[in-house]
Amino acid sequence: MLFVRLGTTHTSIAPWESEIASLKRYCEERGIAQDRLELIQGFSDEVLPTLPKDELDLVLIDGGHGFPTPIIDWYYAAGRLRNHGVLVIDDVQLPAVQMLLAFLDADPRWTRIETTPKWVAYRRDSEGTLQEGHEKQDFLGESRMWTHSAPRTRIFDRLRLNKKT
């Protein structure tokens, strides 16, 4: 609710109606105007692709934690960030989130700007869609790392080996 109090437009997606009701009640009890707040009930992987393609200044990913949900949330939400917009990812200790962080640390379109034990923040150093061909992703290393014959190590460990300098 900090963003709403600061006068910004804020969209929040929550999977359960009880969470939406709690947020509304919180605002009402504190006199927080809800005219710039959009609360959407649903799962992020289903809702995010349907939202208007408006450019965003900040994205917070704190949704589903199982693979591939953090990556899907990143693709559909962070792809709308403006150049130099900020992406905050919560629950960095979880494996699927760590895979996303390893990719972002290797991808030159993102710069890590803050790290805590719970969350990490990145600045987007590009604009437009996040979709790009594999020929532009040489930072991931040789394609063998993605095949079934690759050594049995965690994918995020392999991504870290190709970290940008």
What this model shows, in words?
The chain is globular and about 50 Å long. Helix content is 31%, strand content 23%. The chain contains 6 helices and 6 strands; from the N terminus they run H-E-H-E-H-E-H-E-H-E-E-H. The chain has helices at 2-5, 17-30, 44-47, 69-78, 95-106, 155-161; strands spanning 10-14, 37-41, 56-61, 81-90, 110-115, 119-124. Helix 4 packs across helix 5 (95-106) and helix 5 (95-106) packs parallel to helix 6 (155-161). The protein folds into 2 domains: 1-42, no CATH class; 55-161, no CATH class. With 165 residues, the protein is α/β, with parallel strands linked by helices. Strand 5 (110-115) and strand 6 form a beta hairpin. GO terms for molecular function: methyltransferase activity. It holds the Pfam family Methyltransf_24. InterPro entries: SAM-dependent_MTases_sf. This is Class I SAM-dependent methyltransferase.
